[in-house]
């Protein structure tokens, strides 16, 4: 026997999800709620693990020193200084005799910091993590260990939780996260006094590019340049990301709206944190071209996995074009660049492919690997290789 639903019931079944989705879109115009969706800083991915006890994540005693950074606008950032394993082994006896690695009241008095500051060959990676969780979440601890793999007695890592993440104070904003990054860069230059390299996946790619842009353009007579920038799973800008981003790899936030470009464009006018990495990368490249002196001024590597369902790898394609177009005196169209990429592309089999663009001012690389999704790739050798290459180790 067949039962026919009344027409009114069918209409309600269709209208209810539509109205709920419309309400969701309306709520996203509220800046506070936007921040919750974009930054996911309230998501706890570490349970009851104490961020001041890095041994929870398998680090050796005092291999990691938790410490605090104070921002110019009064926020307190929680940070980890991670010693490379090779260097740790050389000084293990002294390190294990120090007090347990709770928050260091003065990190300059810790042996780990002195090993960083006093070694003229020491190298430092500034690690800007992505949305959600804290510096102890997901694949981040594994990636800290992987970053120093290419020079395990030289490459230190310092990672921070931005304002509002983990146990750092404050609430996130685009200007606030840039201030946090500038605070860490100032610490690296003024306290540690060594060359630094900016690295980070996802949201942190926007932070890294914004930081590099601000340091290269903010002081025209005294620009500051990193040894290199490695970005993993970057996005072009938030407006473009809204049309492609999927929560949990399956739920497109604005996917249904993307079918109506005008509506999507109107909704994007309400976005407060825009993070225009594409435009800032182009401005950064142009700024580097204006800096006097011979030799390259920038070394930027973009790495993305083809099976990244959170942020599709087309975003790296877009960023690469913005950078190459800015580095070309006459500019280059996307079509022209695609033809060049066919000719210069290095095939890596199941490892994916890579292309490189060189100019007198610097180098831009795009490397697309087949596997790694959005997070696991951070701990892969392709990232370790990019780090040592940017620091000048091995084949350029």
TrEMBL record:
Pfam families for this protein: Abhydrolase_6
Ranges where the AB hydrolase-1 domain occurs: 125-287
Signal peptide positions (record): none
Keyword Transmembrane helix: yes
Membrane spanning stretches: 12-33
Keywords from the UniProt entry: Membrane, Transmembrane, Transmembrane helix
SUPFAM superfamilies in the record: alpha/beta-Hydrolases
Protein name: AB hydrolase-1 domain-containing protein
Source species: Apiospora hydei
Lineage, opening ranks: Eukaryota, Fungi, Dikarya, Ascomycota, Pezizomycotina
